[in-house]
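Protocol step 4 of 5: obtain the predicted structure for the target chain.
Materials: sequence only (see below). No template structures provided, no constraints applied. The aim of this step is simply to have a reference model before the mutagenesis design in step 5. Sequence pasted as it appears in the construct record:
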Amino acid sequence: MNRFHDLPDNARGIAYLMVASVAFSLMALLIKLLGQNLHVTQILFVRQLGMLVLVSPAILRGFPGSLRANRPDLQILRMVFALIAMLGGFTAIIHMPLADATAIFFAKSFFVTIFAVWFLGETVGPYRWGAVAIGFVGVLIMLQPGTAEFSIYGLASLAGAAGAAAVMICLRVVSQYDSADTIMTWSSLGIGLAMAVPGIYFWRWPSPWEWVLLGALGVVSYVGQRFNIYAYKHGEASLLASLDYVRLLWATVFGFLVFGHFPGLPTWIGAAIVVAAAVFTIYRETLRRRHLA
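Step 4 output (structure tokens):
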């Protein structure tokens, strides 16, 4: 343990990120397994209950102050976008090969750039706009519109990516008004309550094995989020963001080992374009911040 703490900050950040990437990939695998028999809203509802139990110590420490939000409008807006991200992303994971759904979801990097211009007034140069355009070409290659391979669930993954990007933009703003505990409390309770009605309406009593998978889903979701926080606490954001695409590798491995799915050529080509364009976007953003500094 002491050797680990003696490592440079970036090395520790990368180590934490690798754990988070495995946890998030396992989360996707569990969602796909559970989605064979359970409705996506039921999975989300039970997942949020599990997450709520795991984060309740942090919530209770600041209760009831953790419920007091200076910008409840932004908190609600963030929850709406989070619901879009999770419903779209989870639905795509259930109905598509894991690698395909994961690769399309990485388009969130391009949506972040677009939303940052629209809602935060950030300035984006021609290089980054070019990277966004090329990135969406990669997404189109994976979606294959107008062919027999086109799936509506690919659009669900794309909608989930847009929702996730909007969540990140909301976080940039709301974190200036409310504490992390308040944001976490509103998210855990709000999304859980929003999923309660459809989750109960579509309820199908899980088998003992499905209860085990649901419990594991809550744990790996918590571990993934916690280690992701640790990663960005220690490592440089630009370096970690460019390494986050290792999740695509895990999604490919898990999808092949468990479901026998192996990505076709369009997925490999499109994913390569998306990752390259996203890494270039991160690189340009890093240069811009250094210039501003």
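Step 4 remarks: Residues 265-292 form the longest helix (28 residues). The mean pLDDT is 83.
Proceed to step 5.
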